[in-house]
Amino acid sequence: MRQPASVLAAAALLPLLLMGATACQSVPEGAAVAPAAVPAVPVDDGAPGAAGDPAAPGPAAVRATAKDARVGDSVRVRGRQVGQHLQVELNAFVDPAVSVEKNFAPTAGKRWVAASVSFVNVGGASYGALGSMWAYDGAGQRHPVVPTGELTTGKPLVFDSLEVGERAEGWVVFEIPESARIVRLQYQDANMQTNSGGGFWAV
User: Fold this and answer.
1) Does 62 fall in a domain?
2) For residues 48-68, average pLDDT
3) Helix, strand, or coil here: 125?
4) Domain containing residue 190
């Protein structure tokens, strides 16, 4: 299946982290919208918990727990540098997710699921590289974000950098087997500190 040029361009920018076309904007209502950031997608890039990482939890350990946040909840993430703090909220989760491009769809035997996520810089310093996100299915398998372009539910997430008080919001998409059921989402900061650089949501 031929993919739109815009999708191919987004795929080429995977190492830059989170994809899309939604600009960062200041938290105060009515503030001016910042210029569109470079599209980027959170990818499975060897961060703690990545495949092959000896510290990665096995399938039996990757389950939703009573301590996980839920849709509509936010978690506070602290970066490596002093004063770096993000408020990360899971706004919505859809299954399946559908592209606005009629000729663009998941590969055979798979489907897309998507999460609407927002990030607000609530610290005292600017925030650079965002980090990674994964979706875990009921068998404990971890699925990275994939580029899809705009969805019927909204535009994909763009994150270049966030100054103090700025906000970024949009959709991230995971491609999973048709038979899989997603039970948990994870965000992990690019400059993770133990027990402070990420969060989980049960879905």
Assistant:
1) no
2) 46
3) coil
4) 5-48+74-202
Assess if residue 55 is contained within a domain. no
Q: Tell me which residue of 184, 161, 195, 152 sits closest to 18, measured CA to CA.
A: 161
Residue pair 203/72 in contact by the 8 Å Cβ criterion: no
* Residue 197 amino acid letter: G
Count of structural domains within the chain = 1
Over the stretch 69-95, which tens digit does the pLDDT of each residue have? 999 999 888 777 777 888 999 999 999
Nearest CA among 86, 97, 94 for reference residue 126: 86
Q: 15-32 in b/e burial notation, b at 16+ Cβ within 10 A?
A: ebbbbbbbbbbbeeeeee
- Please tell me which residue, 19 or 106, carries the higher pLDDT value: 106
Residue 181 belongs to domain with CATH number:
2.60.40.1240
Contacts of 164 (CB under 8 A, 6+ apart): 121, 123, 124, 125, 126
Q: Looking at the DSSP assignment, which residues form a beta bridge with residue 162?
A: 127
Q: CA nearest 39: which of 29, 56, 24?
A: 24
Question: Would 102 be classed as within a structural domain?
Answer: yes
Q: Report the pLDDT value the prediction gives residue 127, as an integer from 0 to 100.
A: 82
